[in-house]
Design brief:
single chain, 93 residues, mainly alpha, 3 helices
Length: 93
């Protein structure tokens, strides 16, 4: 009996070709996805800056007075400096 090898060879060629085309198509889709991602990143607006810290004038006056008293007790401020700052805080209330 004679074996027919041509159908097996033809199936191998067709299968190999389909595999190769499938791989190329996947690589093409991967590259396109990377390009799309890069374009989206370039077009996205830059992230907004964090809001600035609240000005010192908006702080709690009692917290300021407590902090000033602490500085006075530590010897960082003199009594005259403490009195001037205390007066400013109390006037702003």
């Amino acid at each position: 009996m004679r074996m027919r090898r041509r159908p097996l060879l033809a199936a191998a060629v067709v299968g190999g070709t389909a595999y190769h085309i499938g791989k190329k198509g996947q690589q093409s889709r991967d590259q396109q996805a990377q390009i799309d991602d890069m374009q989206a990143q370039q077009q996205a607006p830059p992230p907004e800056a964090a809001p600035a810290a609240a000005p010192a004038a908006e702080e709690d006056p009692m917290a300021k007075l407590t902090q000033l008293k602490s500085l006075l007790d530590q010897g960082v401020l003199t009594q005259a400096e403490f009195d001037v700052q205390k007066t400013k805080i109390l006037q702003s209330m």
